[in-house]
Amino acid sequence: xxxxxxxxxxxxxxxxxxxxxxxxxxxxxxxxxxxxxxxxxxxxxxxxxxxxxxxxxxxxxxxxxxxxxxxxxxxxxxxxxxxxxxxxxxxxxxxxxxxxxxxxxxxxxxxxxxxxxxxxxxxxxxxxxxxxxxxxxxxxxxxxxxxxxxxxxxxxxxxxxxxxxxxxxxxxxxxxxxxxxxxxxxxxxxxxxxxxxxxxxxxxxxxxxxxxxxxxxxxxxxxxxxxxxxxxxxxxxxxxxxxxxxxxxxxxxxxxxxxxxxxxxxxxxxxxxxxxxxxxxxxxxxxxxxxxxxxxxxxxxxxxxxxxxxxxxxxxxxxxxxxxxxxxxxxxxxxxxxxxxxxxxxxxx
Length: 349
Ligand SMILES: *[C@@H]1O[C@H](CO)[C@@H](O)[C@H](O)[C@H]1NC(C)=O
Ligand SMILES: *[C@@H]1O[C@H](CO)[C@@H](O)[C@H](O)[C@H]1NC(C)=O
Ligand SMILES: *[C@@H]1O[C@H](CO)[C@@H](O)[C@H](O)[C@H]1NC(C)=O
Ligand SMILES: *[C@@H]1O[C@H](CO)[C@@H](O)[C@H](O)[C@H]1NC(C)=O
Ligand SMILES: *[C@@H]1O[C@H](CO)[C@@H](O)[C@H](O)[C@H]1NC(C)=O
Prior knowledge:
Helices cover about 10% and strands about 40% of the residues. It is mainly β. The protein binds 2-acetamido-2-deoxy-beta-D-glucopyranose (5 copies).
């Protein structure tokens, strides 16, 4: 009798765990869909020695992803391996740079952060932390510098995120700080630095316009589908701002959403919703302004609709695998996950 009941309960357990293993998502108490980041998880390991695939892009044929890594190269995933695609510094020293993870080499090697393909013209736009705004054609090679100084002639200190208006070719991009370079980013928070900016590059006159000043650690940038607004992440304030480009609120900004932890890149999906990558370095500690545990145990990405309503949360289940997420890109029914530190791009499907 005893053995029968224990065996039927263990059958029940097996049945339940089988059921669970086919469900990669659940719903939180607030109705937000929670995706288990460790179910159906895989990694595209970078070439030995490199790390930090911050941002991801797919080209006009749907190939990729492309990503910028620690040694300054932009790599392309062919489906089976990573190959070199482009570099951002014309004088990049291969002996010194290839395979480097030394941040002190970044000013020589480059550090491509924000990436976005203009799929209409097949150009990849790059925000390099040290070499400004660049673009490179479908064959790659040495990228062409578009802008390295602002409208007052002041050199950019630390470019970070970008998005491209495929209709006009205008590029919206962020400068994280006017004082600190990327390799000194850890000084931005303790000094209370508020010199980040949202900028716009106009390809018709090659001018750079400042849209928003005094942004705290300006990071990810994403345009709305109808180009009526652009979002910008304030990494160290744990919030996303909305800057209006059209309508009666044009040229003004407002709060779009607050997030738990540090918001990094923002990527729009094909439905016009926005995935915000949440940097979660558990050593630095997390922002506790928001009771994020109610939304999931370990939120590493959050998807918003156009109005700032939460739709989905990517939960890392406290594992090391997704500990330093910089970007969540929804593409081809998968989530492609970038990181400023890990030696791989993670894929959740
Ligand atoms: C996990 O991935 C496999 C292969 O892509 C897919 O067939 C399956 O539907 C996925 N499972 C869930 C629950 O998404
Ligand atoms: C990369 O590093 C791993 C672990 O150190 C090693 O096993 C592998 O052979 C290396 N691969 C190449 C291509 O060097
Ligand atoms: C490139 O880097 C190597 C290793 O640091 C150094 O020995 C060499 O002089 C550098 N070459 C140039 C042209 O700067
Ligand atoms: C606002 O940003 C400008 C540079 O864009 C800087 O000179 C100024 O100090 C900032 N103000 C504050 C309060 O941080
Ligand atoms: C927004 O600012 C730009 C540049 O300063 C200006 O050309 C445009 O007229 C402004 N639009 C509105 C609605 O104020």
